[in-house]
Amino acid sequence: MTALRTNSQRVTNPGGSMELLEIANPGFSEPMRICNDVEDVVSQNVPYIGIPFRFTLPEDVSGANPQLRLQLDNVGRGITDELERRQPGSVTMAKLIVVDRTEPDVHAHVYYLPLTNVSVTPTVATATASADYWMRQSACRQIADPHHLPGIF
């Protein structure tokens, strides 16, 4: 049993949970490592910068894919500089890690989220996390029709 589960079942939780976020893209110099706190944290010898972030849960709309919204406080220009290095057509992946504050080296839960529709304002950087990007792609990369493969018809 992890410390997160044990402490969550106690009447008084000494530390609580903490979320770590790694955002990676081939255009980034290195993955952005962010901690949902005001202080920096080290987990498994990897430093995470303390920047508050939040998720907006998807709405239950008929006929639409659920989309989770991620909002990062754009405190410095570091987030903006990295997001401007994104290459067109590349997939930005986020890894959400939930840890216990008393044992930040033990990753209790890990979730992978593809990020699309990234936008930056002077105060907030937002992105949409959903599998919609992959779900709308064609299952076959090569289409056999007279226009694309005229020799087989």
Descriptive keywords:
single chain, 153 residues, mainly beta, Pnp Oxidase, Chain A, 9-stranded mixed sheet, 3 helices
SSE blueprint:
Layout: H1 3-8, E1 17-24, E2 32-35, E3 41-43, E4 46-50, E5 53-56, E6 68-73, H2 77-84, E7 92-100, E8 103-120, E9 124-129, H3 132-135
Parallel strand pairs: 2-4
Antiparallel strand pairs: 1-2, 1-7, 3-4, 5-6, 6-9, 7-8, 8-9
Quick recap of the structure?
Pfam families: DUF1833 (PF08875). The chain has 153 residues and is mainly beta.
* Residue share in β-strands: 35-45%
> End-to-end distance, in Å?
62 Å
Question: CATH architecture, please?
Answer: Roll
Note the total helix count.
3
The main sheet comes to:
9 strands, mixed
Top-tier CATH class: Mainly Beta
Could you say what the CATH topology is called? Pnp Oxidase, Chain A
pLDDT under 50 segments (min length 5)? none
Q: How many domains?
A: 1
The assembly state of the depicted protein chains is single chain
Helix content: 10-25%
Mean pLDDT: 81
Output the structural class.
mainly beta
